[in-house]
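Before surveying the methods themselves, let us examine one representative protein, pairing a chain with its fold in token form.
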Amino acid sequence: MSMKKNKPKVDSHAIEYLDDEERGLIESFEKSNVKIKPISEKKKKYWQQIAANSIAQRKKKALNVRLGEGDIELIKQKAARKGLPYQTLISSVIHQYATDQLGERQSAIPLI
């Protein structure tokens, strides 16, 4: 006896944020004879942990930093040219540094 379950039905017209292509995909899927096999508890816990880790990484924490007025003005100018709020630019640069996405240049103060 097969453990496969029938596909859940989704009223694609009741979900207002779907566009025509997404509605068509849902309707096409529902008309097909594909059966969904339930996942094991082990796999379910694995994917739940990945989702929880992803959410945890998005949490923000306030940080107070003192910067020179000249540096702040230069950062604001660069952010304006990029069409970003300056705090977003600062956050992005810190994230890129933390994840080793910034190339390190010669500096008077060596970066740790």
